[in-house]
Amino acid sequence: MLAARQRDVRCLACAGARLHLARHRTDLNLKLMAENDPTNTGGLFIGRRPGTGPVRYRGKPEPGDRKRRRIDSILAGAILVVETILLVTLWGPQPAGWLWVASRIQHRTDSIELALATAFIGMMVTMVGTIGLAMRLDHAWKLVRRAAGHEQKEGMLNRIFVISGAIAVSAFMFWFVIINGPGSSVTPGQ
Fold first, then answer.
1. Residue of 165, 166, 145 whose CA lies nearest to 155
2. Could you count the other beta carbons within 10 Å of the beta carbon of residue 161?
3. Cα 145 off chain centre by
4. To 5 degrees, how large is the angle CA 102–CA 104–CA 105?
5. CA 38 to CA 148: how far, in whole Å?
6. d(Cα 97, Cα 126) in Å, to the nearest integer?
7. Per the confidence metrics, is the pTM higher than 0.85?
């Protein structure tokens, strides 16, 4: 405050000390704050945050001989098949398996709450684990594809997940409407 009072005396543009403090207080406060404070930039950070830079790939890998590229292509196809099978289990076998476990728990303990909690927690844990494993497989698939001589920057995880989900929903709707059916409203016994 002593420096501010000394500036009050030296400031000839302001009529009085109170006017000077009111006019220049923001200048004094801004000098005490960090230069990258988001309030100075309207809430926007200037510059790039760590870890958000663009991904830079090294140059195209040195191609191996024809036999090595063929082996890498076959290995990439095998990884993709395993990834697809793993993601398809999310839509049927895993939930059905946990519902079966829940039915066994409910039968033995006569506690529907324990059975439902077990099924819910079990489904969440196995689904998150399956997606984590599929992400690792997808990364390995990209690396093997690049080793096989292909320019591979994006994985297949999203596509496989969406396509397998669409097929699972379509199969369920076919089963629900056509095979099992809600029944006839004219003849309720069917």
1. 145
2. 18
3. 23
4. 65
5. 47
6. 11
7. no
CB 141 within 8 A of CB 159: no
Q: Are 110 and 139 in contact (CB under 8 A)?
A: no
Distance (Å, whole) CA 112 – CA 35: 59
| Tokens standing for residue 22 | 């009111």
The residues near 165 (Cβ < 8 Å, ≥ 6 apart) are 91
CA distances to 78, 132, 141, 147, 165 from 70, rounded to whole Å, are: 12, 28, 14, 10, 31
Q: What number of residues does the chain have?
A: 190
Can you tell me the distance from the alpha carbon of 140 to that of 144, in angstroms, rounded to the nearest whole number? 6
Summarize the chain as % helix, strand, coil (round to 5): 65, 0, 35
User: What are 13-66's pLDDT values in tens digits?
Assistant: 555 555 555 555 555 554 555 555 555 555 555 566 666 777 776 776 677 788
Taking residue 106's Cβ as centre, other Cβ atoms within 10 Å add up to 17
